[in-house]
Write a structure and sequence with these properties.
Layout (H helix, E strand, L loop, with lengths): L1 H14 L7 E8 L2 E8 L4 H13 L5 E9 L2 E10 L16 H4 L7 E4 L11 E6 L15 E8 L1 H8 L3 E2 L10 E13 L12 H4 L4
Antiparallel strand pairs: 1-2, 1-9, 2-7, 3-4, 3-9, 4-6, 5-6, 5-7, 8-9
């Protein structure tokens, strides 16, 4: 019976999906140059898994970096934001917040942070790349903050160039004056580590790309 139990356990292991590496690198080929992200699956597994689903499905291909938020008095500091924007055709399930108070990650320079609406559980696939630290975005008493889920491994020169690009005076509410005049296209996003796990959901944005 012991031999049978070992054999069954071995079969179960063979059939199990491979675990993600603790850090999964993702390369963004953009119209401004390549950026490699180190997605922190160990400390922020839910947010990382959500982002990788968008990558593995190709849902980020053809989207943009559309926002450059520069700090007043320090135009070389701030963040750039990109992703699916408001394209509901690319959106998967909304993501519950994985706060920095639980992950131990912080909004340091080079951090990748998941964007969201006022509802903490409203993340999708819009994300920010920080130039300079922004501790005000970390969780603290009275504020859930935002979810850090990795850092820029290479290509910070590209991120800084995007931050310096011209912005238009338009935009809604906190984005006013921060929308890039010429958005930077994410031509292709691909993971460099682990095994892709596409969701298998319909790629509606391709089926109806001319609408």
């Amino acid at each position: 019976m012991r031999v049978l139990g070992v054999a069954l356990a071995a079969v179960a292991l063979v059939g199990a999906a491979p675990a993600e590496p603790p850090i999964v690198r993702v390369r963004l080929d953009t119209s401004a140059g390549p950026i490699t992200l180190a997605i922190d699956y160990r400390h922020a597994p839910k947010t990382a898994a959500n982002f990788l689903r968008y990558v593995d499905d190709g849902r980020l291909d053809g989207t943009d970096f559309y926002r450059a938020s520069r700090k007043a008095g320090h135009p070389d500091l701030g963040f750039v934001q990109g992703g699916i924007g408001t394209d509901a055709r690319r959106k998967l399930d909304l993501l519950p917040l994985e706060p920095t108070s639980k992950t131990g990650l912080r909004h340091v320079s080079g951090a990748i942070s998941m964007a969201r609406y006022a509802d903490p559980s409203s993340g999708s696939a819009n994300f920010s790349l920080l130039v300079g630290p922004s501790p005000n975005l970390d969780a603290k008493p009275g504020s859930p903050g935002y979810a850090v889920f990795g850092h820029v491994a290479s290509g910070m020169d590209v991120v800084k160039r995007m931050l310096a690009m011209p912005t238009s005076p338009g935009g809604d509410e906190e984005m006013k004056g921060q929308m890039l005049v010429h958005p930077v296209t994410i031509v292709h996003a691909v993971r460099l580590d682990g095994t892709p796990k596409p969701t298998g959901r319909p790629k509606v944005w391709i089926m109806f790309k001319n609408l």
